[in-house]
Amino acid sequence: MAQKILVIDFERCSGCRACEAACSQVREGAVKPLMARVYVMKWEEVGLYAPMLCQQCYTPLCREACPVKAISINSVGAVVVDEEACIGCKACFNACPFGGIHLDPERKRILTCNLCEGDPACAKVCYRQAIQYETVTDSTLRKKREAVKRIAELTIRVALPPQT
Amino acid sequence: MYGYAGRILRVDLTEGKTYTVSTTTYADRFLGGIGFADKIYWDEARPDMDPFDPESLLFFTVGPLTGTLVPGSARTIVAGKSPITYPRPAYTRSSFGGEWGPELKFAGYDCLVIKGKAEKPVYLWIQDDNVEIRDATRIWGADAYATQDLVKREVGDERAQVVAIGPAGEKLVRFACIIHRRARAAGQGGFGAVMGSKNLKAIAVRGTKGVAVADPEGVLALREYVTPRFVICCSSIEDSRRFHATRDHWNITKMANPWIPPFIKKYGLDSRGRVRNTGCFACPIGCHNYCEVPGFPGGEISCLQWWYANLITNRSPLPDEKAERATWEAKTLADQYGLNAYEFMQMIPLLRALHADGIIDDEKTGIPISKFPDREFMVTLLRKITYREGFGDILAEGTWRAAEKLGVLEEHFLKRDLGEFSGSYFVSGGAGGHGFSGHYDPRAFILDALLWAMYSRDPFDHAHEDTNLVFWSGLPFEEQKKIAKEIYGSENAIHPIGKPEYDEDKARAVIIIENRANVKDALTLCDWLYPMILDAVTGGVGDLTVESKFFTAVTGKEMTYEELLKIGERLWNLERAIMVTEGRTRKDDTLPDLYFMYPQKAPEIPSPPIDREKFEELKTHYYRLRGWDPSTGYPTEEKLKELGLEDVAAKLREMGKIG
């Protein structure tokens, strides 16, 4: 079965943070952006909004760093923490180069994205499709199709300069 | 408690003290948002209080739905005594979107009440339970964009949300506004000046708590249900149907204003040629466009931010790049200075008219009025007002007070149609009512005329449902009537544009609109999306019960549409009581004379002048249906008691102001 991943298109993001709201509502039972596994990074002065999530690495550095082998990859390809085994040392937090590991300061837990076991809430509420949950093949084909359109438009522009 | 944060934060800037009180005292009867402000204002404020008196109260208040996944729930209501209302300061409200309101909820508060005046400039830093009044001496004078950035840097938290005033608020310009992010503003009401009078430069909030939701699945299901059904902004129904297919393009394809598509295509597309929409917290709509014009800061633009273009024309595209740049510079400068752009929709036509008549000139005012619409005129005008330089000091008092000072209030403003000096046809371009600028022309929309006459400010924080139905929907009048039957109880609730009618069905519709308005501002929801009078999927009548369903899903409390409307009625009566204590009577419930004197000649909305006598009859219907005394406009004891407002009735009786 083709693996689905969370595909991010920064430029589509309106910065609304519905993904954060949905993630925390599903995982924590309350809209609580601090506990969301997705963060929308913002550069208001240039209008750049970027939803940042766990990359779900094939060779997760967090897993490599874990001294008690509490981190594994689940059936949908998500890198998850076994809360029973976790000792809270935060070695995973330090090892991740993407800031993909979050901490729950209240209940002293490590928070990671489990892709909602194959039905990610963040992608479901993103009407603008800045976050899409799709197979690598679908995503690749979509991007290739868009690229061909762009190149075609460019080609026409170059080939047929505007009449003056 | 689901939905509510549970606490109200009280700040006294004079004493430098903060404390909290429980929300539970107010939640059942006053719901949230404007309801909390109304109740606390009634209990504590002196009717004759000057807005700039240190003791005057300023509210930032959100509702039980704010900070959840309910679309359009990120509104914050700002309320208090307004310095811009005319002839006297009055209690009124404004609101803004973005992310500040949800953050206040995440910090654990449903409402923030500020009173007192700090000795020197300060800003407020609310970090969950930790509330600090911090020195703002170094950022005093900074523009509203820079202030937000400086405060975020100083508190060391880029996820903090900030509202700020610009130099206009500091200088007590009576129409100074409060700015959030790069376009969100509590514009009407002059509350930026109230912040300035309290030496309060900004309020930064960061919350790490959550908003607990009773039925998360229910909220998500309702969200799925409503999102495709919203009819958005100036698009016609047909257009919003297209919204589903070409989400990014709805507002550049069929907008009323012809300068928007070329502008967005030039300055507002991403690297792949798609429109860059931005939105409020958790809202799927994203009604703003992010634009970048070379040489100016980037920012968001929706409808009002086109104000300068609107003053030039809305019948043809902007003439050239110079005008495009002036439009963008006007938006940016108004934001940065913290000026309410809508004020200029009456001020600039008045200045041009007075200039044409030779009453004022470029030299004496120091403002190159003859050069309109050149940027030189606009930049000089905004600067002189913001810093109260020369003639700008008079204009900083607001258009109505400035006209009074110049001795031109009656003849040249309230009794004059300034339509020819306004570029826009649906914005009347002159005086509107109660000190505010004209907006949708009340001659063309009698419901709006009555809504306007009865309110403390312009009614376009809730009157859009009328204009959306009869103007923007693009539906044939016969279809509109069927929808009117469903949402106002009578086909006769609306009239064809240009053929005004003044019967009691119109008054009944106005009362429904007003009660719904207070429900919306109590929950707190966006006026563009709620109430859902039209359904974009079916093309017919919308679902008026979504607010109550969302309320139940979020709070877990049973609530019907009718019960919500009753709360709305309670709040409207409480607000009327506040107005009455401030001196409001039936004769103040009116519009400027010009609307009774001249027709609206624009070919899109040709309308005769409002018939004064019939309008008074319409008002009488209104008072009677409201349960108020038609001769004075005071609420009756009976009505107030029916609504559980016995204490309000007692105070009004004491003042001799009960119907």
Would you give an account of this structure?
The complex is a heterodimer of chains A (about 160) and B (about 650). Chain A is α+β, with helices and mostly antiparallel strands and about 160 residues long. Chain A is about 30% helix and about 20% strand. Chain A contains 5 helices and 9 strands; from the N terminus they run E-H-E-E-E-H-E-E-H-E-E-H-E-H. In chain A, strands 1-9 form a two-stranded antiparallel sheet. A two-stranded antiparallel ribbon of chain A has the order 3-4. In chain A, strands 5-6 form a two-stranded antiparallel ribbon. Chain A starts with a strand and ends in a 5-residue tail after the last helix. Chain B is an alpha+beta fold. In chain B, strands 2-1-6-3-4-5 form a 6-stranded mixed sheet, sandwiched between helices. In chain B, strands 8-7-12-9-10-11 form a 6-stranded mixed sheet. The interface of A and B includes residues 17, 22 and 28 of A.
Topology (elements, then pairings):
The complex is a heterodimer of chains A (164) and B (659).
Chain A: E1 4-8, H1 18-28, E2 30-31, E3 39-43, E4 48-52, H2 61-65, E5 71-73, E6 79-81, H3 91-95, E7 102-104, E8 109-111, H4 121-125, E9 131-135, H5 136-159
Antiparallel strand pairs in A: 1-9, 3-4, 5-6, 7-8
Chain B: E1 7-12, E2 17-22, H1 24-30, H2 34-44, E3 58-61, E4 76-82, E5 90-96, H3 100-106, E6 111-115, E7 122-127, E8 130-135, H4 144-155, E9 161-164, H5 167-170, E10 178-180, E11 184-186, H6 191-197, E12 200-206, E13 211-212, H7 216-226, H8 237-245, H9 250-253, H10 260-267, E14 277-278, E15 288-291, E16 299-301, H11 307-312, H12 321-337, H13 344-356, H14 362-365, H15 375-386, H16 391-395, H17 399-405, H18 409-414, E17 431-433, E18 436-437, H19 446-454, H20 464-472, H21 477-488, H22 504-523, H23 546-555, H24 561-581, H25 594-597, H26 612-626, H27 637-642, H28 646-655
Parallel strand pairs in B: 1-6, 7-12
Antiparallel strand pairs in B: 1-2, 3-4, 3-6, 4-5, 7-8, 9-10, 9-12, 10-11, 14-15, 15-16, 17-18
Helix pairs in contact in B: 1-2, 2-24, 7-23, 12-15, 19-22, 22-24, 22-26
